[in-house]
Please model this.
Amino acid sequence: MTTNRKVDYIIIGQGLAGSAVAVQLLRRGKKILVIDQPAKNNSSRIAAGLFNPITGKKMVKTWMADEVFPYLHQFYREVESVCKTSFFYPTPLYRPFISIEEQNEWMARSADVAFKSYVSEVFTHSTVPQVNDPDGGLVVQQCGYLNTTEYILSVRQWISREGTFLEEDFTEESLKIDTSHVEYNGWTAPRIIFCQGTRQSRWFEWIPIRPLKGETISISADVETAYVINRGVYIVPAGVNKHFRVGATYFFQDRSEVCTDLARRELEEKLGQLISFPFRVIGQDWGFRPTTPDRRPIMGQHPDLKPLAVFNGLGTKGVSLAPYFSDVLIRSLENSGTLNNAVDVSRYKSVYWSVPKIV
Ligand SMILES: Cc1cc2nc3c(=O)[nH]c(=O)nc-3n(C[C@H](O)[C@H](O)[C@H](O)COP(=O)(O)OP(=O)(O)OC[C@H]3O[C@@H](n4cnc5c(N)ncnc54)[C@H](O)[C@@H]3O)c2cc1C
Model:
């Protein structure tokens, strides 16, 4: 096939990573070609879409929250406004305390300037009737959820309007790599960005993406709450009245591509402890998160093949990390910014140099 169609960037994959990269390029007026073959169990489709700056058993502020959270609010609102759709739902999050000690700790911490913009209230007694919260709880702000399916679909329509979207498998054998550009089935571009999640391309096989299986259940419950509820598990509205997504499990060892009874039981049990209302399980989903050993995303140019770049490793926090870091990546590729060492793919270049080269 002859090369006759030129774009500035080719993007492989349109999950949360590829969508954010596409948005960054479209808003800069770049010409793009996006190739994606969606599958039901892609991580981005399974995700409940929660974003929350205070996470984990120890309830700590997530890495780079002060940069990432203000950015994501602006980013998703802007995409909603361009696409004239709704998929972004900022909602306060309620996290019941597990003990009086934890309550005391948060009474002190909430006055700390580092937490002031995230903690809006500390309740010292049971306050939210839908939750088992005998010791009260914490209301966290700058949280909420993204309807990931709707968001990805909206971005896809934007790409189709202002660029090109191909719903098909990208075939590695068809990519020709030159020093200054790539060619693919008649398309030519100075850059190609791989945003493939746990499906790695042969040129980036050496980056340590570790699939982490997660499962969620869908429930139906006759309840309304002003909060996302989170402690051990989260409950997030699922886009249909009275339907909610509950998640998620973390099983590194499990590589099976099925829903398991073990996960369902774990989620039902934790949910039963957290909430005070009856529910009915109406569905279950599984997916693999693209995690990294140091829990930081991986991005930047290939060490040898300069037209090739990667954006991956969003792990358990794709919704919050993708907007800010897609901007960081595109600035660096456009020579208007540098990559932070913590996310630069070059931190793994010793792995690259130690494996046989496939070019
Ligand atoms: C159960 C579960 C719950 C989660 N909940 C949350 C949550 O609440 N909040 C949160 O922030 N994160 C959550 N996550 C994590 C989040 O889903 C990931 O961080 C994110 O989806 C990763 O996005 P990605 O675009 O890198 O990968 P993916 O979603 O896997 O997207 C990659 C895309 O590339 C395509 N692709 C790959 N190779 C090719 C090829 N050769 N040709 C064509 N297309 C290709 C795939 O088909 C896919 O569409 C959850 C994950 C799981 C599994």
Observations:
- Helices lie at 16-27, 43-46, 65-83, 100-109, 148-162, 261-274, 318-333, 349-354.
